[in-house]
């Protein structure tokens, strides 16, 4: 249970007092505001603030394209057109601010998305809590034998038990030692900025993360993808649920053109044309490498 | 008068319908929303949307610095501390979206601030309006004789008249020719993306511009500065009036530490220390070049 | 002829004096260094400096992916893999600095690519030259009747003559007036930062533009595309010729996966699968709008 | 000793084969290329590539400011002028690529500088080495009692011994368990992307980091500062030594105006003016808070 009673009380208070605004309001998003969507064993994502809605995207596009957009009859059609033609600037006109609690090794992947604003909890200033990510049994996977960066089957039996025992006991011991080094009881106490180095990467941190919708879609395309590491994908999935309610037209277009979309190389397009004409194309006659051919087959089979 | 009756009616309608929200609300900014602040002869700035307020800055800082910020007794003190110590990330947690109508030569300076989102009116898609910036008599300045990028005295008499006559007649003729080339009356009509090349840089364009508060302060520091070109400074000044009402603590800290602040080199600090001890320091004994000494004198005199 | 004898002499001097370096050297790019590739009537692109080569991409990827990349047998295969799987960071490890002379209306499109470094000639500081883009007859196109932002047939006869006459005489007159307003002969002379506003958007400016290879590819994909405006496409085409010699493997992968690549929506992929199974799919049974269907047909026909 | 004989041999080979180039060459930087500057117990920084030199900054400025820069008589003076007046774009025209080996908790601070390109070693793909940062005795500091994010006295005696013992034994045990979980000897072996979560933040990682000179100076101002954490400051210091030899004029200006510079608020400037006139100003009459006054005193005393 990631939320303390104090946190839940604070959320309840924030949700109890609506105020009037003249700004664009997304009803779907208002329902999510401040509520924590629980992720992994101690993590969460919650929306702290947002700017804009589907209409804000349309409004910005109409500034840019003026009369040029009039022939697209409705807002949904225009949003689909923008997404299909990679007109990204109107999507940048929406912004979201999230509060995320997440393991450090997930945070390290996440932060590689540079076009965002971040305020992370600082372990130089303050002491981290005793909270570590320990995978559920069904997330305890073996190294993939075919993919260098992937997972294979779920571990079971004695091996699974050994792994969980190691993760739990090492986390506990590290945190005991962290407290012991920090302690000013009968000793000076090590600087916080040094003591934190003993903590493993499954400890939880938290941050405020603010990003525009275009860059958020880029994040979601990579991190809600089947090839993303499970532990970041569950955060991306939780965010998808919020975005779907925030900007339903934009999210639907994103699902169709990005998440479910496929990019084919010019070689692949050539093969496709030949196949549609009835030719029997094989890897040997495709001009593609074995890897490319395998991925092409997976995309269209 | 930059606003048409239609635009004014649209603004009135937008302002007439407050809706409830659970988000942070800045009362000061709500009063500005959608209203056009008139700038130059046909330009304006108006706030389309905003995210956050002074409290959002504090809230983000407290996530980062945790217990480390508790000793700063109040929100204003914390915001001043953050500004003084260049802790910029909490200020990035506020965002503003503006609708700006401005001459193209001003837009060209403005766009050099890269960390922002922009949707500009496209003259490839649509036809520009017949609106040109013609300076007021008191803005019609001679080239500075001391500063390569500055202005000197205001032009008067026959010279001023000649300049205004040129600007007006060239603008008018260019626009006539623009329409003539575009016309499909008895001819094919030149492509819009080509015809626009005949229009001078004082024609008005417009855009939506979205930026976070940290980057907005950077823009304002450079563009509301006395050395900025007058025609962009008036836009920066108009935005300052909005920001002052949006985030009053942050704006006051910005004024004190950035707009009114002075950066001294290590050489200048050395001189200052000697001067405070009663020594009579001259340019020759300062170690500074003439230019640096002149600027140093201006800063502390 | 865009280059003055002085400029040509400077280029010759720069090219005459090779110096030893321990850095990665791209022979293909050395052959381009400093040489101006002429574009439009007075413009050019020339490479001022570069960092890295194909091997630098591979080297960076091997830092990231370590043993994970060993099974990819060669550099070209690895680069193709990176491009196909959108692993963009290794491509960011190469950098290029260009000197570009271009009409202002082209510069205004170009600058929208924000992730780059720019030093543009300042008309506040200095006086612009009398050089304007006047289209060649075969670039003088009518407005497209089907595409709001496109061109149709080439104008001919009296209409073409009238357009060229307008463009030439307006440019000339604007520049005469620019000089007249700036003149300090018997008058004070208008400030340069004001006088420039009278100049039309086909006047030439110039800048240094520095960008990493990943962002350059993004620029080239959009601007060397058939839908880009002709006047920026010719610059993109000229840059393509340089990049091809600089990083031949990366450029070939870019051509195959990006320039010649096609992105299909999930709806389009579904249709494709049905078509490959022999089903006769029409727009009505495709689930796509007419516009999407038309684009889909164009992609695979 | 951070470098293996293999690495040293590779460096020697790279340094043995100069090649001719027509690009700008910085002799000072050539002497650093590829050589590892050792930092902390297992870390290093080494220059992999660079673009530009002092002259490249001047050259870019002269494109921008044209005739406006002619009155500045020499390159050093112009560079100092640019630095003093915050004209940052010419400094962006130089670029550097570093190979850095550093503890993860240092990497986490470093990566917050977003305007850079990074390729980090991936522990999803590959196995990390058994190398941990263990502080030297004189870096083993107590928590500061006055500064929430600072260090106080150096720990000694039994407390220091206990801390070192904890850091060493926890690191060793974590790594043993990491290997044990990964092992495929008689078991499936945990996925690398999961096993890494057990490793503490003092384990070493490595990356290629590419940044322009303007953003590098920003990094160095914050991280070579006395208030930066010691473990990142030593990296910044090592980089300073390289930059000093790469762009000596720019580095000297950076030292004078940024590292050694002081920013005063408008309140502080007012006090200073009063003090220079002989007035005895105290905190009570200064209008500053106690904290501001203390910092002001420290700056000018």
From TrEMBL, chains A, B, C, D:
Which key words are in the record?
FAD, Flavoprotein, Methyltransferase, NADP, Nucleotide biosynthesis, Transferase
UniProt GO MF annotations: thymidylate synthase (FAD) activity
Q: What does the Swiss-Prot or TrEMBL cofactor note state?
A: Binds 4 FAD per tetramer. Each FAD binding site is formed by three monomers.
**Gene Ontology BP term (one):** methylation
Where, in this chain's numbering, is dUMP bound? 109-112, 120-124, 196, 223
Q: In which pathway does it act?
A: Pyrimidine metabolism; dTTP biosynthesis
What Enzyme Commission number does this protein have?
Answer: 2.1.1.148
Cofactor(s), by name: FAD
What PROSITE patterns does the record point to?
A: THYX
Coiled-coil annotation: which residues? none
Q: Name one Pfam family in it.
A: Thy1
Which residues of this UniProt protein bind FAD?
89, 112-114, 120, 212-214, 218
| InterPro entries (alphabetical) | Thymidylate_synthase_ThyX, Thymidylate_synthase_ThyX_sf
User: Which reactions are catalysed by this chain?
Assistant: dUMP + (6R)-5,10-methylene-5,6,7,8-tetrahydrofolate + NADPH + H(+) = dTMP + (6S)-5,6,7,8-tetrahydrofolate + NADP(+)
Q: Which residues form the active site?
A: 223 (involved in ionization of n3 of dump, leading to its activation)
The enzyme's first-digit EC class, named in words, is: transferase
Q: Does the keyword Chloroplast apply?
A: no
**CDD domains with a match to the protein in the record:** ThyX
Similarity section: Belongs to the thymidylate synthase ThyX family.
What is the recorded function of this protein according to its Swiss-Prot or TrEMBL entry?
Answer: Catalyzes the reductive methylation of 2'-deoxyuridine-5'-monophosphate (dUMP) to 2'-deoxythymidine-5'-monophosphate (dTMP) while utilizing 5,10-methylenetetrahydrofolate (mTHF) as the methyl donor, and NADPH and FADH(2) as the reductant.
Q: Quaternary form?
A: Homotetramer.
The record ties this protein, via NCBIfam families, to:
thyX (TIGR02170)
Provide the protein name: Flavin-dependent thymidylate synthase
What phylogenetic lineage does the species belong to? Answer: Bacteria, Pseudomonadati, Pseudomonadota, Alphaproteobacteria, Rhodobacterales
The gene it comes from is: thyX
